[in-house]
Specification:
It is a single chain. It is built from 12 helices and 19 strands. Helix 7 links the parallel strand 3 and strand 4.
């Protein structure tokens, strides 16, 4: 190769790298918002991006155009009136299945692919993802990781799993998936959250000592189980600098157990397969900061009106980055309530807590909605209970599934009487309360543990 060709090749290589950097910075600017802006400016930026999304959806999708015109969100002049946004009917999970072709654009420019939700509480649905939105979500993830002090290149353990990732229990992973080579390849060690027997948990804690992760990302229930195992067995685990939990409800009791066992701050993260990462707690470990350039979140009452801070309601999510398949006012199925502004001075909206799925909250005999945490607090007081699940079989029947811890005294008659009395205070004096003592409670298909389950339909006759 002559000198001119070498110079030309170096120039083109540098040019391509510069263009990639420019593209990355441009995409980063699309989702990154300074955390020190005044609250009014944050709200203004969120509304601006919401308007852009609605204009795009109305111009590209007849489904959204018709729906927006019908409620006045899109006026006769073809302009968006944000004052009418809450009049737009919610997007139902069933519509994503039945009207998928009308809601997706497979001709969207750039790379697209179909993804699927886990379907832990119903039929899985397919979502058309696009590359630009995916890159934006990865940058949101990076911004959240930075709150926990984690930056690219730092070592991380992922105690994770999804139904599609399950390996046969007798299958030995190929050599390139061996933990040592994983560390050499990407400074990341993946541990299977579906394998949480005593032998596996002991092995996981051993791997932490030689891998020495800076950060641990884990299913909330799985890392809690590992924390209790370490304490029960008297194991002194390696202490990472931060633990990030996700994919399940993190209670105050769970957070305290995890922090005590591993001596690390616990950052709770809220996300979903449909939207990616949406919110995370900061160093204050109190509430979940929403990234307002990535999603627009509402919390509403059964009649659709907005809730007040501290009032339990249903979460509606609008993606501000998705274009191949816009999800607008989507009923994700979760419940939660707004919190006050955080002392950290970030002016991003704060969800005090995501309490789980709609089906994690119970219906009283008088038609009231009972927070699922009411029942978890009743059981957390019992040291003899290693794991539990409370199920509302119907409006008049609550069933406790209690896994007893070995070598712990459990006064069955007295505790059953207490749990029955406390349950009837919330559910009604005619409520039937039953008990079961299984040896184990298996996680659901996505590897998560649900503490409370209601089998009662959303529409309950009074």
């Amino acid at each position: 190769m002559n000198n001119l060709a070498l110079v030309e090749r170096c120039f083109m290589s540098s040019f391509r790298m510069a263009m990639r950097l420019r593209s990355w910075l441009s995409g980063n600017a699309a989702v990154y918002l300074s955390e020190n802006l005044p609250k009014e400016q944050v709200e203004q930026e969120n509304n601006l991006r919401l308007r852009y999304l609605l204009e795009y959806a109305a111009g590209r999708f007849p489904f959204w155009n018709e729906r927006m015109r019908a409620c006045g969100l899109l006026n006769a002049a073809g302009l968006i009136d944000l004052d009418c946004f809450t009049a737009l009917p919610t997007l139902e999970r069933s519509e994503l299945v039945e009207r998928r072709d009308e809601l997706s654009d497979e001709n969207y420019p750039g790379e697209t692919w179909w993804d699927q939700t886990g379907g832990s509480t119903g039929e899985p649905v397919r979502i058309l993802k696009d590359r630009r939105s995916k890159e934006a979500m990865l940058k949101v993830k990076g911004q959240m990781y930075a709150w926990a002090g984690h930056h690219p290149g730092m070592s991380v353990v992922e105690l994770w799993g999804a139904e599609r990732d399950i390996l046969d229990q007798h299958h030995r992973p190929p050599i390139w998936e061996w933990p040592l080579l994983q560390r050499l390849r990407c400074n990341k060690l993946v541990q299977n959250a579906f394998r949480m027997g005593e032998e596996q948990m002991r092995q996981y804690l051993t791997e932490w000592h030689w891998f020495r992760p800076r950060t641990v990302l884990a299913y909330a229930h799985s890392i809690h189980e590992l924390a209790l195992f370490a304490e029960r067995e008297g194991i002194r685990p390696y202490k990472p600098k931060a633990i990030i939990t996700s994919a399940g409800t993190l209670t105050d009791e769970m957070r305290a157990d995890i922090r005590r066992a591993f001596g690390a701050p616990v950052f709770n993260r809220y996300g979903s397969r449909e939207f990616g990462n949406m919110a995370m707690s900061c160093e204050r470990e109190d509430g979940l900061h929403i990234i307002p350039t990535a999603v627009h979140i509402e919390i509403v009452r059964p009649d659709g009106s907005p809730t007040d801070p501290g009032e339990l309601g249903e979460i509606l999510v609008t993606s501000l980055t998705a274009r191949a398949m816009p999800l607008i006012r989507y009923r994700i199925g979760d419940t939660g309530y707004w919190g006050e502004s955080c002392p950290c001075d970030r002016m991003f909206p704060v969800i005090a807590q995501v309490t789980g799925k709609r089906s994690d909250n119970f219906h009283g005999q008088d038609g009231s909605l009972i927070h699922g945490a009411y029942f978890t607090h009743l059981v957390w007081q019992l040291e003899a209970i290693r794991k539990f699940q409370v199920v509302q079989e119907n409006v008049g029947h609550v069933h406790f599934r209690l896994v007893l811890a070995p070598a712990k005294a459990f006064h069955q008659v007295g505790e059953e009487d207490r749990l029955t009395e406390e349950t009837r205070k919330a559910m009604g004096q005619d409520c039937r309360v039953t008990f079961e003592y299984p040896e184990e409670i298996e996680p659901n298909a996505t590897g998560k543990h649900r503490f409370t389950i209601s089998r009662v339909q959303d529409q309950v006759s009074s």
